[in-house]
Amino acid sequence: MIVEAARLAGRNLLAPETRSLLWRILGVTIVLLAALWVLLRELFIWLALPWLDALLPGIPQWAGWLGFVFGILASLGLALGLALLIAPVTAVVAGFFLDGVADVIEQRDYPQEPAGTPVPVGRAIVYTAKFLGVVILGNLVALLLLLVPGINVAAFLLVNGYLFGREFFEFAAMRYRDEQEVRRMRSRYGVRIFLAGLIIAAFLSIPIVNLLTPLFAAGLMVNLHMMLSQHDTEFALPLEREGSLARA
Questions:
Q1: What angle do CA 119, 170, 116 make, to 5 degrees?
Q2: Dihedral (CA of 229, 232, 238, 241) sign
Q3: Residue 230 within a domain
Q4: Looking at residue 57, what is its pLDDT?
C-alpha cells in the first residue's frame, strides 16, 4: 500500500493535470529559499564581520589567507543553513497547495469517492503555523544530532519522517474528518504513516529534486489516506459509510 501510494505520487509529479501546480510550487519554493538565503547572508555578515575586524585590525576584511578561509567557511555555513531550511519551507508551501493537489488526485483517481472539503483558510493558516514551528524545532534537534558520528543521517530521516508523516497525513485526512477522527486513524495506522513519512524524508534529502517535496508529499499522503479509507470500513468515507449502513 505504501509503495503503491509512493508510486502514484511519483507519477503525479509530471502528470498533465498537476503541471501548473508543479510550476507554482517550484516557483514559490525557490523564491522563499532565495529570500531566506539573503536574510541568512545579511545576518551572518552583521554578526561575523565585527569579529573579523577584531582579529585583523587595520587589514582589509577579505584580504589574506585568513579572510579566504573565512569566506569558504561562511559559504559552507550558509549552504548548510539553506539545506536545513528546506524542511520548514516545504511545510509552508505544502500548507498552501495541498488542497489543490488533493482535488486533482481525488477527482482523477478516486471518482467513485465523495469529494473532499478544503480546509477553511483560517484553520489552514493556524495548522500550517503550528506545523512550521514543530518542523523547525524538530530540525534543530536533528542539527544537534548531525554532530554525532554514526547517527547523523539516521537522525535527519527519523525526525523528518515522523514529522512529515504525521502532519501531511493529517492535512490530507482533515479534508474528510474532524480532528478527533483524524487522531484515531493516525493512531491505528501510525507505523504505515511513519514509513510513508520516511519516504518523504528520503525524497527531501535529494538535492534539487527536493524542491518538489510539497507536491510529492501531498500526493503520497492523499493516496495513502484514500487507500486506508477504502481498506478499513470503520474509516470509510462518508457516502461509502452510509451505503454500508443501509445494506446492513
A1: 45
A2: positive
A3: yes
A4: 56
Identify whether 247 is part of a domain. Answer: no
For the chain, the domain total comes to 1
How far, in Å, CA of 151 to CA of 61, rounded? 38
In the chain, the amino acid numbered 54 is A
Residues counted in the chain = 248
- Close Cβ partners of 185 (under 8 Å, ≥ 6 residues apart): 173, 177, 228, 235
Annotate 163-177 with b (16+ C-beta within 10 A) or e (fewer).
bbbbbbbbbbbbbbb
pLDDT of 7 higher than 70: yes
Provide the residue range defining the domain that includes 58: 2-241
The three cell numbers of residue 108 are 482523477
Whether residue 71 has pLDDT greater than 60: no
Structural domain contains residue 246: no
CA distance 193 to 187: 9
Give the model's confidence band at 244: pLDDT under 50 very low, under 70 low, under 90 confident, else very high. very low
Which position has the grid cell 477553511? 120
Helix axes 64-109, 19-55, angle to 10 degrees: 160
Structural domain includes residue 115:
yes
Tell me the CA end-to-end span of the chain in Å, nearest whole number.
Answer: 28
C-alpha cell at position 219:
500526493
Average the pLDDT over each of 1-5, 8-12, 29-33, 93-97 and give the range with the smallest value: 93-97
* Chain position carrying cell 543521517: 153
Query: In sequence order, which ranges of 110-234 are alpha helices (DSSP H)?
Result: 121-145, 152-173, 179-188, 190-204, 213-231
Angle at 127 between CA 116 and CA 221, to 5 degrees: 45
